[in-house]
User: Which sequence fits this backbone?
């Protein structure tokens, strides 16, 4: 595993564009810290400081930071599709196979890289969240601090699943730009299918089915936290209540999609004439 990971890291670090994108993808999550210190002047009457509103208290901080950090995943997605695009354009994929790397090892080297960068990003977000929470939170009990840390695990799986999808699309079309375009097309297709199912049956049934679609399943791992924040400020508003928790079946769906994307990537490479 380490041999394959080291091989892939060497390729990425020798590419200037990849190095820049990797750097940006690791730096952007730190903007969550800026969010915590943001002060908004409301027409000169008073200053609204987000850190003082209680939204960075434990355990909600785990939910808030992982949701915002996950929005920056597209930068490393470009790196993932570029990994495949460069292999085909530079013909290094053929050279690697000639040098003794099996097709299975080739796909595994990409997957190990995905897991590695997802893990590094997850550790960074966990540390950032912990630091912000310890600074702003009114609750310092260990039981409260550790509550809802499953959002960190959900963040990791969300990255691995999304990047595995990008890997599959990169293998499918061989070009970075086309792979990213297919990602957008998949997003549109999911909503078209949702509309057709809702028209045929009802919106509630359509939403349940949509939760099994790959992009929506990844999104559902970490639901938007804004409604939850509103619930803490207006506890008497029962209509604001919604299910924001991380569930085991959501983990299972995304894990299944991840395994399928890696398997399909391998099958494509195995059957393709290089």
Assistant:
């Amino acid at each position: 595993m380490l041999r394959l990971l080291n091989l892939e890291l060497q390729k990425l670090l020798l590419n200037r564009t990849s190095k820049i994108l990797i750097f940006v993808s690791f730096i952007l999550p730190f903007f969550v810290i800026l969010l915590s210190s943001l002060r908004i002047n409301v027409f000169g009457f008073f200053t609204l400081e987000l850190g003082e509103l209680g939204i960075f208290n434990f355990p909600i901080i785990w939910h808030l930071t992982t949701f915002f950090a996950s929005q920056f995943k597209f930068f490393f997605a470009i790196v993932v599709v570029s990994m495949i695009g460069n292999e085909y354009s530079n013909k290094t994929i053929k050279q690697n196979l000639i040098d003794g790397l099996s097709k299975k090892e080739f796909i595994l080297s990409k997957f190990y890289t995905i897991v590695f960068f997802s893990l590094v990003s997850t550790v960074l977000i966990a540390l950032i969240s912990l630091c912000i929470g310890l600074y702003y939170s009114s609750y310092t009990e260990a039981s409260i601090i550790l509550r809802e840390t499953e959002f960190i695990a959900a963040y990791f799986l969300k990255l691995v699943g999304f990047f595995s999808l990008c890997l599959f699309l990169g293998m499918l079309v061989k070009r970075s730009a086309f792979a990213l375009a297919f990602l957008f097309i998949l997003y549109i297709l999911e909503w078209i299918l949702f509309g057709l199912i809702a028209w045929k049956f009802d919106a509630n049934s359509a939403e349940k089915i949509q939760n099994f679609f790959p992009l929506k399943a990844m999104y559902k791992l970490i639901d938007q936290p804004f409604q939850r924040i509103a619930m803490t400020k207006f506890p008497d508003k029962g209509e604001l209540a919604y299910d924001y928790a991380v569930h085991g079946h959501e983990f299972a769906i995304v894990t299944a999609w991840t395994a399928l994307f890696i398997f399909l990537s391998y099958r494509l490479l195995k059957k393709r004439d290089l």
